[in-house]
């Protein structure tokens, strides 16, 4: 419940809004529309919605239970039918709620042409030209899960423990958030409250397997089904901790590289040939050791010069963030952090590049001992990129450095280095009205100003939506840092699901009204 | 056929030999026993044996065909029965030839107690106190083989092509050489020539899977069944090339190490954590890069000081060896050799240590891209050892160096380094009478003095026999460098099998008589 003053309740805005929203200021709108602001009383339109969410909590949980029971694992061919079943489940639910729904086919799966890609479920709820149109994204496919992987419960049976933790594959990633949007419509209808925006949904079924085909689809629909979009909201990431919600305004990009070193025509016996031939693995570990030092400093000349300097304003965002070194140690499961403070730690994760060495293909990787000289080895590493690192510039510095280091070895082996894939970083203004609306919704529901966060990882669809629609994109997570997405015992806390449904709904009310900014 | 003068024909030696063999010189014996030495005529006892081998060639090949047809793959549980069948095949054949045969059980397989270890087939042919007793070793198990691995023919069907190459799993490794000894007895019996030595056989069935249980068996039988042994001969390696036989007098040892570096409690997402935590893989490639340089120089301080200096006499052995840089390039399938000359290349393989990095356990090793920070990685490397490197000294230098290099990294990760296994190097005197006898046999059969070689790899049973019996051990290969043991399309050339049978027989005649030396 709110712990401090409500600043404005935009959900009362009615016709006339379309003209007003581009001109009024928060203060003028507040004065214009409302007779009073109460510190303790809920505004009429959110209050019945919130109450309805509480009243419908069990049916919302039941909706999640049904969704979790469908093992829509996109990475496993044998579950493809289940992924389609999950699309149908969503479509049926949305239709029952009165939405216009389409299941859009994406064709055959590249490389597995016997498989159809799961459809993108798109929906429209409301078509009022006087309302803003908000496009929301989520995915209905899940990571693989087997009880024997170490799950304490059946992964595809939603199981609630005595601390109201709801365990099940997809509970937090991303079925809970997706159903959150359905719950919002549901509760509005049951409460008799009009949805203050037109809602467009884009729910995909291949997110956990590379979002095959989605980019082209979004690009095309940006001018069609999504053409009225005023802002985008994605709920597919997590709070920084467990207590305080966050809004996410930045993501690092990722340039993923392979270094191949080859010599002999086939693997050699190290007894027979050791000492007489240049060994690709020797060359490779040498090159890999020249990329990053043990303190995480990237050793590629010129790379750090591409990084935008930290501004004082930016620095000021970090102090208030609810995060401690203990949080880091808890998530690492060890005290092997590099930096001594939370500010430096978070900056290292969010706004500076990093370089990780992922592994080696072609060398001996099994337990035990094998005396092989691998004939060809491929080292894999990636660089997390940040403003203003352009992929082409990064590639040039990487390739030049690796070639120069290899030349120093005087090896007769053959070097190849190439970019496997890249994805650009994304940074939005946390002062945009899409964010300020979400910030108010967080304050309304959780009684606390959200952390303004970035993330170290990439969510490529974020950039796709931004580029395709030209609109601001907000990341508004529902789950918490302990939800174990992609791991065993994935869960979503009941609080995050139910209050999170309120948050998504409140966001729609605030964003309907938030004056233009940033 | 011989291309130059026969030097001596010891096979005429009859009773009286026991006394004479410790005193006579080659020249005195030759003068004593023979009226003349002919350049063109075969000595009576070898000539009928050789002729009989030629006459029996088809039946010897048929014997090999039957043996290859038994898929005695020791590494695969489902073939264990076949390994036992192969032992029985050998025992039956040896008994039919008049040998005393035992199949000695070795108990249950450690770690797989539902499996019985295959027996050691031991046999004695002849028990004449006036003759030398020669112990021969071979193995009757084989590497796995599947047609779909890339075999041009069925791996367990001996298939002879138009160049008389006999393809089949185990043809060269080591069923051909094992049957060579049986063929020798067979041909002597058929030719009515007495075997000039007592022959002891030790044929094992687990060589391709670690020779489980064999060491203890040999140690025990050295005082029992093998107690009369005067010299040992092992035929389980290969010529240096394809034309010229060799005798092998040295093997490198092998110390195999693991370096484990661990940090976080579980694998991390490189986007989320990259830059904020010490990464085990970063530390590991750094350590691995400090072990050996691209030119094969071992970087562990003090290690090269353990290596025995090269003597002038030793150097002189290398010039005549039939080997070229083209041979190296052919076997590498590339021109990525380190050294410019054959002498330096062979010394690097045979008499200097080498260090090879085999791979990394725990890192990402599949094709494709995965943005993981592995929580724990284990690097594997081994050092091929040579005189006078003692394992304990090597371990200390390795451990000290790695710990010192890790300390320099200032990483909070955890380092462990340990020896996985070690096996000592072996060097015999190539001037011992066991070798000089074999050398004469090579000259007799192939008309050329053999190359005196060492090998870079280890054949641990060699050292076991030397230590258990206290006698000289000779490695007398039958197959050539192109036989592809352990690979697809393993083969044994008909010439190597048939002339090789003559060689083994001739060796027994010469070794029966060779005066004591070295």
Automatic annotation (TrEMBL), chains A, B:
<feature type="active site">
    <location>
        <position position="141"/>
    </location>
</feature>
<feature type="binding site" description="in other chain">
    <location>
        <position position="236"/>
    </location>
    <ligand>
        <name>substrate</name>
    </ligand>
</feature>
<feature type="binding site">
    <location>
        <position position="371"/>
    </location>
    <ligand>
        <name>substrate</name>
    </ligand>
</feature>
<dbReference type="Pfam" id="PF07687">
    <property type="entry name" value="M20_dimer"/>
</dbReference>
<keyword id="KW-0482">Metalloprotease</keyword>
<feature type="binding site">
    <location>
        <position position="486"/>
    </location>
    <ligand>
        <name>Mn(2+) 1</name>
    </ligand>
</feature>
<keyword id="KW-0464">Manganese</keyword>
<keyword id="KW-0479">Metal-binding</keyword>
<feature type="binding site" description="in other chain">
    <location>
        <position position="384"/>
    </location>
    <ligand>
        <name>substrate</name>
    </ligand>
</feature>
<dbReference type="GO" id="GO:0070573">
    <property type="term" value="F:metallodipeptidase activity"/>
</dbReference>
<feature type="binding site" description="in other chain">
    <location>
        <position position="486"/>
    </location>
    <ligand>
        <name>substrate</name>
    </ligand>
</feature>
<feature type="binding site">
    <location>
        <position position="236"/>
    </location>
    <ligand>
        <name>Mn(2+) 2</name>
    </ligand>
</feature>
<dbReference type="InterPro" id="IPR017153">
    <property type="entry name" value="CNDP/DUG1"/>
</dbReference>
<comment type="similarity">
    <text>Belongs to the peptidase M20A family.</text>
</comment>
<feature type="binding site">
    <location>
        <position position="208"/>
    </location>
    <ligand>
        <name>Mn(2+) 1</name>
    </ligand>
</feature>
<feature type="binding site" description="in other chain">
    <location>
        <position position="458"/>
    </location>
    <ligand>
        <name>substrate</name>
    </ligand>
</feature>
<dbReference type="GO" id="GO:0006508">
    <property type="term" value="P:proteolysis"/>
</dbReference>
<feature type="domain" description="Peptidase M20 dimerisation">
    <location>
        <begin position="257"/>
        <end position="407"/>
    </location>
</feature>
<keyword id="KW-0645">Protease</keyword>
<feature type="binding site">
    <location>
        <position position="269"/>
    </location>
    <ligand>
        <name>substrate</name>
    </ligand>
</feature>
<dbReference type="Pfam" id="PF01546">
    <property type="entry name" value="Peptidase_M20"/>
</dbReference>
<feature type="active site" description="Proton acceptor">
    <location>
        <position position="207"/>
    </location>
</feature>
<feature type="binding site">
    <location>
        <position position="139"/>
    </location>
    <ligand>
        <name>Mn(2+) 2</name>
    </ligand>
</feature>
<feature type="binding site">
    <location>
        <position position="173"/>
    </location>
    <ligand>
        <name>Mn(2+) 1</name>
    </ligand>
</feature>
<protein>
    <submittedName>
        <fullName>Cys-Gly metallodipeptidase dug1</fullName>
    </submittedName>
</protein>
<dbReference type="GO" id="GO:0046872">
    <property type="term" value="F:metal ion binding"/>
</dbReference>
<feature type="binding site">
    <location>
        <position position="173"/>
    </location>
    <ligand>
        <name>Mn(2+) 2</name>
    </ligand>
</feature>
<dbReference type="InterPro" id="IPR051458">
    <property type="entry name" value="Cyt/Met_Dipeptidase"/>
</dbReference>
<dbReference type="InterPro" id="IPR002933">
    <property type="entry name" value="Peptidase_M20"/>
</dbReference>
<feature type="site" description="Important for catalytic activity">
    <location>
        <position position="269"/>
    </location>
</feature>
<dbReference type="InterPro" id="IPR011650">
    <property type="entry name" value="Peptidase_M20_dimer"/>
</dbReference>
<keyword id="KW-0378">Hydrolase</keyword>
């Amino acid at each position: 419940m709110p712990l401090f003053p409500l600043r404005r309740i935009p959900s009362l805005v009615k016709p006339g809004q379309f003209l007003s929203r581009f001109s009024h200021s928060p203060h003028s709108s507040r004065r214009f529309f409302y007779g009073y602001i109460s510190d303790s009383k809920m505004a009429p339109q959110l209050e019945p919605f919130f109450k309805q969410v509480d009243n419908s909590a069990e049916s919302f949980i039941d909706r999640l239970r049904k969704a979790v029971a469908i093992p829509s694992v996109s990475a496993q061919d044998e579950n493809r039918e289940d992924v389609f079943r999950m699309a149908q489940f969503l479509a049926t639910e949305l239709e029952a709620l009165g939405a216009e729904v389409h299941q859009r086919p994406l064709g055959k799966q590249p490389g597995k042409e016997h498989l159809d890609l799961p459809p993108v479920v798109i929906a429209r709820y409301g078509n009022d030209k006087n309302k803003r149109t908000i496009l929301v994204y989520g995915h209905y496919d899940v990571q693989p899960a087997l009880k024997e992987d170490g799950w304490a419960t059946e992964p595809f049976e939603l199981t609630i423990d005595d601390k109201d933790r709801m365990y099940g594959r997809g509970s937090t990633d991303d079925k809970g958030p997706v159903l959150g949007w359905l719950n919002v419509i549901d509760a509005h209808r049951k409460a008799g409250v009009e949805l203050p925006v037109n809602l467009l949904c884009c729910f995909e079924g291949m997110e956990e397997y590379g979002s095959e085909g989605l980019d082209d689809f979004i690009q095309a629909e940006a001018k069609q089904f999504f053409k009225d979009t005023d802002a985008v909201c994605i709920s597919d990431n997590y709070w920084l901790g467990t207590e305080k919600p966050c809004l996410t305004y930045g993501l690092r990009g990722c340039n993923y590289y392979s270094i191949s070193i080859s010599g002999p025509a086939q693997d050699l016996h190290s007894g027979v040939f050791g000492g007489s031939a240049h060994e690709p693995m020797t060359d490779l570990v040498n090159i890999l050791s020249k990329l990053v030092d043990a303190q995480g400093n990237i050793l590629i000349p010129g790379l750090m010069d591409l990084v935008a300097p930290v501004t004082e304003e930016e620095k000021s965002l970090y102090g208030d963030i609810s995060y401690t070194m203990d949080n880091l140690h808890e998530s690492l499961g060890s005290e092997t952090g590099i930096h001594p403070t939370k500010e430096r730690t978070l900056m290292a994760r969010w706004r500076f590049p990093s370089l990780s060495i992922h592994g080696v293909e072609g060398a001996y990787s099994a337990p035990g001992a094998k005396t092989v000289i691998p004939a060809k080895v491929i080292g894999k590493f990636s660089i997390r990129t940040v403003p203003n690192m352009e992929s082409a510039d990064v590639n040039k510095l990487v390739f030049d450095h690796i070639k120069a280091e290899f030349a120093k070895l005087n090896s007769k082996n053959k070097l190849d280095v190439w970019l496997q894939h890249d994805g650009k970083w994304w940074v939005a203004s946390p002062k945009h009205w899409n964010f300020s609306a979400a910030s108010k919704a967080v304050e309304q529901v959780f009684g606390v100003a959200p952390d303004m966060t970035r993330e170290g990882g990439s969510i490529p669809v974020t950039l796709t939506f931004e580029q395709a629609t030209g609109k601001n994109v907000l990341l508004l997570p529902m789950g918490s840092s302990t939800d174990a997405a992609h791991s065993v015992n994935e869960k979503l806390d009941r609080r995050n699901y139910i209050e999170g449904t309120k948050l998504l709904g409140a966001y729609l009310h605030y964003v309907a009204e938030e004056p233009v900014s940033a």
